[in-house]
Design a protein that fits this description.
Elements lengths: L1 H27 L3 E2 L5 E4 L4 E3 L2 E2 L8 E7 L5 E6 L2 E2 L12 E3 L11 E3 L8 E9 L2 E13 L1 E4 L5 E3 L5 E3 L2 E4 L8 E8 L2 E9 L2 E3 L11 E3 L11 E3 L8 E9 L2 E11 L4 H26 L5 H30 L2 H21 L8 H27 L4 H27 L2 H23 L4 H8 L1 H7 L1 H6 L7 H29 L5 H24 L6 H30 L8 H20 L1 H43 L13
Parallel strand pairs: 2-11, 13-22
Antiparallel strand pairs: 1-4, 3-9, 5-6, 5-10, 6-7, 8-9, 10-11, 12-15, 14-20, 16-17, 16-21, 17-18, 19-20, 21-22
């Protein structure tokens, strides 16, 4: 019995020993684990500071303490089964958090939010359990930060001046190692590239065309993180919101700058003065010519030359200044060329001109053709660098051939035969479209071959021109003129269609199309005057329309565009060629129609006069009868008055 009791006591003692050993193992054998290496944290982001144990611990008497190793600043504390936010340092209020649900699993990691540059350093996680305490040390080695600052205030500018848009970069990454800095401008709902810095190089080729050669970084300031943009020769269209965007690794940031405008520049005021002066000059000289038209012919001719050249020279200078301030190269060239060439047409329709000089009309056509092809060639050359060698050779040959043919056409027209000159002129549309398709690309190869065949169709219309007898009113003449005119209008419509389809997304497609249509109208009047050599009827109307009306339209369009663009920062018309060239084309087409249909227009006016004449005759007869009746009545009244009695005088004896 005693042995049995001793055995039971021994077993109970052995179980107690095993239980106590297990408790000691749990309490004394834990290890605190941390990260395997230093942490890299993005500025302003969040970072997880790992801290855990390899075995479960009793929550009773458990204490977890997070501190800064360098300053012993208390970051967070878990004690007596609860967190103690009231004892943590104020810099970590609402920034340091435990995962309370994971504490009983042995996870004591700390989530640190809104990381700042001052958070860089070493941290200690200490775990106390009973009589034991262990710790792990971890380090935030680098705080990645990227801050881009611009200008909160509006940047004011005057047109034609230079302006600086501020952009400063502050980062742990050296400025020379920043991957990309881009300046962009907001246009409607998208951004266009202003200037790009990439892989330590400024990529000027990436800039939008309107900023070419006008934007640059301050190269000497880049190593200091200064990526400010210098915008030269400011234009009204530069007004708006700009964004400086920086990329460095996985970080990115941006800042915006707003560029506003402070009214008209000196050049803008000069443009307005020239436009007003051109309008006033045209109207005043027109009135002077009318007042002096009864005098000698010489003063009228002298005033006429001033009337033709002075307003157009003023508009030429106005368009030139507009191009300098706003930078619309092609638009400026075409508008200036038109102002210099249109006096040739005005002189031919002037009342004091004795006859039409077809060589001046031909000269206007060829000069404008050279200008047109030169601008088209320049536009082509901007993209031809990407072409094959054969394509480059074709473009150069076509342009050189146009210049050569224009020179030959003048010689043949003047000294040889107009037939040969006309044949050369009929080849110009083909060369024009070849260069056009190389410039803007073709949406249809079939369309390209149709365009090449255009000169053949144009040449077939010579039969209509040859059979026309200038100034004769006949059914054959009317049929030939109408047929030729209808065919020309169809060709112009087809040409405009191919222009639009070929240019696709080109911004100034409307301007190019209006220019091409005007060139075709100029070609038509040159061909007709060359073959028929007619006189210009109704010169006074055409002269006033071309000298005053067209100048007023151009001046008002330019002033409207300048004022609205200065106020709003965006273009109102879009392209001045869409106003200038249709108005000039209407004037030229009116001259052509008056010349072609003069006999029938004159006959129509005579019919109107005959219809008006009987009414005028009957009215005059009635008026004469009334005057006669009045005279008779007055005579009768005089005969009855006493003063009219006849007295007889006695003869002298």
């Amino acid at each position: 019995m005693i042995d049995l009791c001793n055995c039971v006591r021994f077993k109970m003692h052995l179980s107690t020993v095993h239980f106590l050993s297990a408790l000691l193992m749990i309490a004394d054998g834990f290890t605190v684990k941390g990260p395997s290496g230093p942490l890299v944290v993005p500025l302003g982001g969040s970072v997880l500071l790992p801290c855990s144990v390899d075995s479960l611990l009793s929550l009773k008497d458990l204490e977890v303490e997070w501190k800064r190793s360098d300053s012993q600043t208390l970051i967070h504390l878990y004690q007596d089964g609860d967190i103690r936010p009231e004892v943590q340092h104020e810099d970590y209020h609402d920034r340091a958090h435990f995962f309370t649900d994971d504490i009983k699993q042995g996870n004591f990691s700390l989530l640190l939010k809104n990381v700042t540059a001052e958070d860089e350093g070493k941290y200690t996680c200490t775990v106390h359990s009973g009589q034991e305490s262990h710790e792990t040390v971890l380090q935030i080695k680098d705080v990645e930060f990227l801050m881009v600052t611009g200008s909160d205030d509006l940047i004011s500018m005057y047109v034609g001046k230079n302006v600086t848009l501020n952009c400063s970069v502050d980062s742990h990454i050296p400025p020379e190692d920043i991957e990309e800095v881009s300046w962009k401008k907001r246009v409607e709902n998208e951004y266009i590239m202003v200037l790009l810095y990439q892989n330590k190089v400024t990529v000027s080729e990436a800039s939008d065309a309107q900023y070419t050669d006008r934007v640059e970084f301050f190269s000497d300031e880049i190593h200091r993180g200064n990526f400010s943009l210098r915008l030269k020769r400011v234009r009204t269209e530069d007004k708006g919101l700009y964004m400086c965007q920086v990329f460095a690794g996985r970080l990115s940031d941006n800042a915006t700058v707003t560029l506003q405008q402070l009214g008209f520049s000196a050049l803008h005021i000069m443009v307005l003065i020239l436009c007003i002066a051109a309008c006033g000059c045209a109207v005043i000289i027109c009135c002077l010519i009318y007042c002096t038209s009864q005098n000698k012919e010489k003063p009228v001719k002298t005033l006429g030359y001033f009337y033709v050249f002075l307003p157009n020279i003023m508009m030429f200078v106005a368009f030139l200044l507009w191009g300098v301030t706003e930078g619309f190269l092609y638009e400026t060239i075409f508008c200036c060329a038109l102002c210099l060439l249109r006096p040739l047409t005005l002189i031919n329709v002037a009342p004091y001109s004795e006859k039409v000089l077809s060589i001046t009309v031909l000269g206007e056509l060829l000069i404008f053709t050279v200008v047109y092809f030169s601008v088209l060639f320049r536009h082509t050359w901007e993209t031809v660098v990407h072409f094959a060698t054969f394509d480059k050779a074709v473009v150069i040959v076509v342009f050189g051939l146009v210049l050569l043919l224009c020179a030959i056409a003048v010689v043949l027209w003047k000294f040889v035969d107009k037939w040969f000159a006309a044949f050369i002129l009929f080849s110009l549309p083909s060369l024009q479209f070849i260069l056009l398709f190389f410039t803007f690309g073709s949406a249809s190869r079939a369309g390209f071959f149709v365009i090449v065949l255009f000169p053949m169709f144009f040449f077939l219309t010579i039969s209509c021109l040859v059979d026309i007898k200038g100034g004769q009113k006949s059914c054959v003449n009317l049929l030939n003129i109408t047929s030729w005119l209808i065919f020309m209008f169809i060709m112009m419509a087809v040409m405009a269609y191919f222009y639009v389809t070929s240019m696709g997304n080109e911004k100034d497609v409307a301007g190019w199309t209006c220019t091409a249509v005007f060139l075709q109208v100029l070609w038509m009047i040159t061909m007709y005057m060359g073959f028929t050599e007619p006189d210009v009827p109704y010169r006074t109307f055409l002269y006033v329309f071309g000298s005053v009306g067209v100048v007023l339209i151009m001046a008002v369009a330019l002033m409207t565009e300048l004022i609205l663009k200065t106020v709003n920062g965006d273009r109102a018309v879009g392209d001045l060629r869409t106003v200038v060239y249709p108005s000039e084309g209407l004037f030229t087409l009116t001259v052509l129609i008056f010349i072609m249909f003069e006999p029938w227009i004159a006959g129509f006016l005579q019919c109107l006069q005959k219809i008006q004449k009987p009414a005028d005759t009957s009215a005059n007869t009635e008026q004469q009868n009334q005057e006669h009746q009045t005279a008779v009545e007055d005579h009768e009244l005089e005969s009855l008055s006493p003063a009219s009695e006849v007295t007889c005088e006695q003869p002298e004896s």
